[in-house]
Each structure stands twice: as structure tokens, then as C-alpha cells.
Amino acid sequence: MLLGTFAPKLDEKNRIVLPAKFWDEFSGGLVMTRGLEHSVFLYSAREFETLHEQLREASLTSRKARDFMRVFLSGASQELPDKQRRITVPPLLRDYAGLTRDLTVIGAGPRAEIWETSAWNRYLADTESAFSDTDEEVIPGLF
Fold first, then answer.
1. Is the pLDDT of residue 141 over 80?
2. In 3D, which of 112, 111, 33 has the Cα closest to residue 75?
3. Neighbouring residues of 47: CB distance < 8 A, sequence distance ≥ 6
4. Among 23, 16, 21, which Cα is nearest to 5's?
């Protein structure tokens, strides 16, 4: 499980150092792809394979399912971290997420997310008050 918030920098070769706490999950390789809210999602190779199997169960007659799979999978890139735990963020994903030098990487359970720091701060400010004001069940049986 991936948890926490980290602030790595994008270097001049468009690489980031993975948080040490994520190393075990990603050391064998990872897949990064377009995420929601213009972030980049990172999955371990194993987790992405599980997700891909679930996507294959979607009906091909569903336009929304086809559209989602096309956007999600066409932006996917397999990466193997180097010995310094760095990964290169491909141009397509940097452009999609508006990534500059200052990044925020969050653990989101089965995946990590890379955000441009100002976009993350805006997102967090916009959603924190709604989170605090939750008065109905959002996640069945939990909250």
C-alpha cells in the first residue's frame, strides 16, 4: 500500500527520484499513465496487470468504456527505475499533467500519483473543505 506525500523535483533530464517508501513496490518496474484530474498515475507492474485484467472485462459495446481504455492505455509507459531510484517521465505525460520542476507525489493506496505542485495545492484546497463537511456515506461501510 502506498501512502504519504512527497516533494521531489523534476531534474533537467525529466527524471524524478521515487520516494524511498515506494521503492519496494516499484523496484521491479512500473507503469505510468494519464491519471484523473490531470495527474500521472503510477502502478507497480503487478498492480497494473491486475487493473488491465479488470479493464478487459468492460463491454466493448460501451462507448464510455472504450473511450476510457483508449485514453488510459494510450498514455501508458513501462519504466524501470535506475539504481538511484529515478524514473523518466515521458513528454506526453509531462504535458498532460503540466509537470514543471516542483512536483508532489502522493501515495493513493494501490497507486502513486504525480502532480504539479501548484495543481495539487489547488486540488487539495478545493476538496479539503468538502472532505471535512462530509455528512453522508461516501465509501460504503466506511465513511
1. no
2. 33
3. 110, 111
4. 21
Please say whether the beta carbons of 81 and 16 come within 8 A: no
E strand or H helix at 138 = none
CA angle 52, 55, 61 (to 5 degrees): 145
Identify the DSSP state of 1: -
Q: For 35-53, what is each residue's pLDDT tens digit? A: 999 999 999 999 999 999 9
Domain 5-132 has CATH 3.40.1550.20: yes
Phi-psi region of 94 (alpha: psi -120 to 50; beta: other; left: phi over 0): alpha
List the chain domain ranges: 5-132
- Please provide the average confidence, as pLDDT, over all residues in the chain: 92
Determine the Cα–Cα distance for residues 74 and 22; give it in Å rounded to an integer: 25
